[in-house]
Design a protein that fits this description.
Elements lengths: L5 E5 L11 E8 L5 E9 L5 E7 L7 E8 L2 E12 L4 E10 L5 E5 L4 E4 L15 E5 L8 E4 L4 H10 L44 H28 L1
Antiparallel strand pairs: 1-2, 2-7, 3-6, 3-8, 3-9, 4-7, 5-6, 8-10, 10-11
Amino acid sequence: MPQTAQFDVEIKQSNFSLGEEFVVSLFVDSSSQPVNTIFSRISYPQEKLEFIDSSFSNSEFDNLIERKTEPGLIKLTSFTVQPYSGNHALFVNLKFKPLAEKEAKITIQPISKIHSADGKGTDIANPAKLPVVLTIFPGTEQKPIIQKGETVKEIKEEIQKALPEDSAESFSFPEKGVADYSTFSGYPKNNLPSQKTKKPGSLLNNPLIIIIPVLLLTIALLILIIKLKKKTNSL
Protein backbone atom coordinates (compact mmCIF):
# COMPACT_ATOMS: atom_id res chain seq x y z
CA MET A 1 0.00 0.00 0.00
CA PRO A 2 1.48 3.38 -1.02
CA GLN A 3 2.52 5.66 1.85
CA THR A 4 1.05 8.92 0.58
CA ALA A 5 -0.77 10.32 3.64
CA GLN A 6 0.85 13.18 5.51
CA PHE A 7 0.50 15.59 8.42
CA ASP A 8 0.06 19.33 7.97
CA VAL A 9 0.40 22.21 10.41
CA GLU A 10 -1.43 25.52 10.33
CA ILE A 11 -1.00 28.60 12.49
CA LYS A 12 -3.00 31.79 11.90
CA GLN A 13 -0.93 34.02 14.14
CA SER A 14 2.23 35.57 12.72
CA ASN A 15 3.65 37.51 15.68
CA PHE A 16 4.05 36.24 19.24
CA SER A 17 4.43 38.13 22.49
CA LEU A 18 5.51 36.69 25.82
CA GLY A 19 2.55 35.23 27.71
CA GLU A 20 0.21 35.51 24.70
CA GLU A 21 -1.54 32.22 23.92
CA PHE A 22 -1.61 30.91 20.35
CA VAL A 23 -3.14 27.86 18.62
CA VAL A 24 -1.42 25.37 16.33
CA SER A 25 -3.75 23.17 14.24
CA LEU A 26 -2.70 19.72 13.05
CA PHE A 27 -4.31 18.32 9.89
CA VAL A 28 -4.20 15.03 8.00
CA ASP A 29 -4.09 14.64 4.21
CA SER A 30 -4.93 11.13 3.01
CA SER A 31 -5.98 11.86 -0.61
CA SER A 32 -8.23 8.98 -1.70
CA GLN A 33 -7.02 6.48 0.91
CA PRO A 34 -9.48 5.88 3.79
CA VAL A 35 -7.86 6.31 7.21
CA ASN A 36 -9.28 5.97 10.69
CA THR A 37 -6.62 6.24 13.41
CA ILE A 38 -3.99 8.90 14.08
CA PHE A 39 -1.05 8.20 16.41
CA SER A 40 1.05 11.27 17.17
CA ARG A 41 4.02 12.45 19.18
CA ILE A 42 4.55 16.22 19.27
CA SER A 43 7.60 17.73 20.94
CA TYR A 44 8.33 21.30 22.00
CA PRO A 45 11.03 23.07 24.08
CA GLN A 46 9.52 23.32 27.57
CA GLU A 47 11.93 26.08 28.59
CA LYS A 48 10.66 28.26 25.71
CA LEU A 49 6.98 27.25 25.41
CA GLU A 50 4.24 26.34 27.85
CA PHE A 51 1.72 23.79 26.58
CA ILE A 52 -1.80 24.84 27.68
CA ASP A 53 -4.17 22.20 26.31
CA SER A 54 -5.38 20.16 23.31
CA SER A 55 -8.85 20.33 21.77
CA PHE A 56 -10.58 17.77 19.54
CA SER A 57 -13.60 20.00 18.94
CA ASN A 58 -14.60 19.71 15.24
CA SER A 59 -11.91 17.06 14.71
CA GLU A 60 -12.53 14.32 12.15
CA PHE A 61 -10.83 11.97 14.63
CA ASP A 62 -12.67 12.80 17.85
CA ASN A 63 -12.79 9.36 19.52
CA LEU A 64 -9.92 9.82 21.93
CA ILE A 65 -7.73 6.86 22.89
CA GLU A 66 -4.71 8.56 24.39
CA ARG A 67 -4.04 12.06 25.70
CA LYS A 68 -0.88 12.26 27.78
CA THR A 69 1.79 14.86 28.36
CA GLU A 70 5.38 14.62 29.50
CA PRO A 71 7.89 17.44 29.84
CA GLY A 72 8.35 18.69 26.28
CA LEU A 73 6.24 15.92 24.72
CA ILE A 74 2.53 15.56 23.84
CA LYS A 75 1.10 12.07 23.17
CA LEU A 76 -2.20 11.99 21.28
CA THR A 77 -4.03 9.11 19.61
CA SER A 78 -7.61 9.16 18.34
CA PHE A 79 -9.80 7.58 15.69
CA THR A 80 -12.98 7.95 13.67
CA VAL A 81 -15.60 5.21 13.38
CA GLN A 82 -16.42 6.32 9.83
CA PRO A 83 -13.15 6.13 7.81
CA TYR A 84 -12.02 9.43 6.35
CA SER A 85 -10.49 10.08 2.93
CA GLY A 86 -9.54 13.49 1.61
CA ASN A 87 -7.34 16.43 2.48
CA HIS A 88 -7.07 18.94 5.30
CA ALA A 89 -8.94 16.90 7.92
CA LEU A 90 -8.59 18.50 11.34
CA PHE A 91 -6.86 16.22 13.85
CA VAL A 92 -6.31 18.46 16.88
CA ASN A 93 -5.81 22.06 18.00
CA LEU A 94 -2.89 22.67 20.39
CA LYS A 95 -2.62 25.78 22.56
CA PHE A 96 0.77 27.16 23.67
CA LYS A 97 2.22 30.24 25.33
CA PRO A 98 5.74 31.67 24.76
CA LEU A 99 7.97 31.80 27.84
CA ALA A 100 11.02 33.39 26.22
CA GLU A 101 11.85 35.58 23.25
CA LYS A 102 13.76 32.78 21.58
CA GLU A 103 13.24 30.69 18.47
CA ALA A 104 11.10 27.63 19.31
CA LYS A 105 10.26 24.51 17.31
CA ILE A 106 7.06 22.47 17.59
CA THR A 107 7.66 19.11 15.93
CA ILE A 108 5.45 16.25 14.77
CA GLN A 109 7.87 13.41 15.36
CA PRO A 110 8.87 10.80 12.73
CA ILE A 111 7.28 8.03 14.84
CA SER A 112 3.81 9.55 14.30
CA LYS A 113 1.50 7.36 12.22
CA ILE A 114 -1.58 7.62 10.01
CA HIS A 115 -3.37 4.26 10.00
CA SER A 116 -5.29 3.01 7.00
CA ALA A 117 -8.83 1.65 7.40
CA ASP A 118 -7.77 -1.57 5.67
CA GLY A 119 -8.51 -3.91 8.57
CA LYS A 120 -4.80 -4.18 9.38
CA GLY A 121 -4.01 -0.68 10.59
CA THR A 122 -1.30 -0.19 7.99
CA ASP A 123 0.71 2.98 8.56
CA ILE A 124 0.46 5.01 5.35
CA ALA A 125 2.16 8.20 6.55
CA ASN A 126 4.77 9.26 4.00
CA PRO A 127 8.14 8.99 5.84
CA ALA A 128 9.64 11.53 3.45
CA LYS A 129 7.20 14.12 4.85
CA LEU A 130 8.18 13.57 8.50
CA PRO A 131 9.06 15.19 10.78
CA VAL A 132 6.93 18.32 10.40
CA VAL A 133 8.57 21.27 12.14
CA LEU A 134 6.90 24.58 12.94
CA THR A 135 9.40 27.27 13.98
CA ILE A 136 8.18 30.44 15.66
CA PHE A 137 10.12 33.57 16.65
CA PRO A 138 8.52 35.22 19.73
CA GLY A 139 9.33 38.88 20.24
CA THR A 140 10.29 39.47 16.60
CA GLU A 141 8.54 40.34 13.35
CA GLN A 142 9.72 37.15 11.65
CA LYS A 143 6.86 34.95 10.48
CA PRO A 144 6.56 31.25 11.41
CA ILE A 145 8.30 28.70 9.17
CA ILE A 146 6.93 25.23 8.40
CA GLN A 147 9.31 22.53 7.18
CA LYS A 148 8.73 18.87 6.27
CA GLY A 149 10.76 15.74 5.88
CA GLU A 150 13.83 16.18 3.75
CA THR A 151 13.96 19.91 4.42
CA VAL A 152 14.71 19.16 8.08
CA LYS A 153 16.75 16.02 7.52
CA GLU A 154 19.63 17.42 9.54
CA ILE A 155 17.58 17.39 12.77
CA LYS A 156 16.00 13.93 12.39
CA GLU A 157 18.79 12.14 14.20
CA GLU A 158 18.79 14.71 16.99
CA ILE A 159 15.01 14.34 17.43
CA GLN A 160 15.10 10.54 17.58
CA LYS A 161 17.92 10.53 20.13
CA ALA A 162 16.02 12.92 22.38
CA LEU A 163 12.91 10.72 22.66
CA PRO A 164 12.33 7.28 24.15
CA GLU A 165 11.35 4.50 21.78
CA ASP A 166 7.63 4.46 21.16
CA SER A 167 5.23 2.83 18.72
CA ALA A 168 1.60 2.06 18.01
CA GLU A 169 2.15 -1.67 17.55
CA SER A 170 -0.04 -2.47 20.57
CA PHE A 171 -3.19 -1.57 18.62
CA SER A 172 -5.47 -4.33 17.38
CA PHE A 173 -7.32 -3.75 14.12
CA PRO A 174 -10.36 -6.01 13.51
CA GLU A 175 -11.83 -6.69 10.06
CA LYS A 176 -13.69 -3.41 9.73
CA GLY A 177 -10.49 -1.51 10.35
CA VAL A 178 -11.60 0.41 13.44
CA ALA A 179 -8.92 0.47 16.12
CA ASP A 180 -9.77 -1.75 19.08
CA TYR A 181 -8.74 0.60 21.86
CA SER A 182 -9.26 -2.12 24.50
CA THR A 183 -5.83 -3.52 23.62
CA PHE A 184 -4.03 -0.20 23.73
CA SER A 185 -1.22 -0.43 26.26
CA GLY A 186 -1.98 2.98 27.74
CA TYR A 187 -5.33 1.96 29.19
CA PRO A 188 -6.36 -1.09 31.25
CA LYS A 189 -9.56 -2.69 29.95
CA ASN A 190 -11.58 -1.60 33.00
CA ASN A 191 -10.54 2.04 32.76
CA LEU A 192 -11.13 3.03 29.16
CA PRO A 193 -11.96 6.50 27.85
CA SER A 194 -15.58 6.95 26.80
CA GLN A 195 -16.56 6.90 23.14
CA LYS A 196 -19.23 8.96 21.44
CA THR A 197 -20.16 6.12 19.09
CA LYS A 198 -20.70 2.48 19.99
CA LYS A 199 -19.83 -0.26 17.55
CA PRO A 200 -22.82 -1.83 15.78
CA GLY A 201 -24.05 -4.96 17.52
CA SER A 202 -22.41 -4.12 20.83
CA LEU A 203 -25.72 -4.72 22.68
CA LEU A 204 -25.81 -8.27 21.41
CA ASN A 205 -22.51 -8.93 23.11
CA ASN A 206 -24.13 -8.26 26.51
CA PRO A 207 -25.33 -11.62 27.92
CA LEU A 208 -28.02 -9.90 30.04
CA ILE A 209 -29.83 -8.89 26.84
CA ILE A 210 -30.46 -12.60 26.18
CA ILE A 211 -30.73 -13.95 29.76
CA ILE A 212 -33.41 -11.52 31.02
CA PRO A 213 -36.04 -12.24 28.27
CA VAL A 214 -35.47 -16.02 28.67
CA LEU A 215 -35.91 -15.74 32.45
CA LEU A 216 -39.13 -13.73 32.08
CA LEU A 217 -40.49 -16.24 29.57
CA THR A 218 -39.70 -19.13 31.93
CA ILE A 219 -41.51 -17.41 34.82
CA ALA A 220 -44.55 -16.74 32.62
CA LEU A 221 -44.68 -20.42 31.60
CA LEU A 222 -44.48 -21.58 35.22
CA ILE A 223 -47.33 -19.27 36.21
CA LEU A 224 -49.42 -20.60 33.31
CA ILE A 225 -48.73 -24.24 34.29
CA ILE A 226 -49.72 -23.56 37.92
CA LYS A 227 -52.98 -21.90 36.82
CA LEU A 228 -53.81 -24.84 34.52
CA LYS A 229 -53.16 -27.34 37.35
CA LYS A 230 -55.43 -25.41 39.72
CA LYS A 231 -58.15 -25.30 37.09
CA THR A 232 -57.80 -29.07 36.48
CA ASN A 233 -57.98 -29.88 40.20
CA SER A 234 -61.11 -27.75 40.63
CA LEU A 235 -62.83 -29.80 37.94
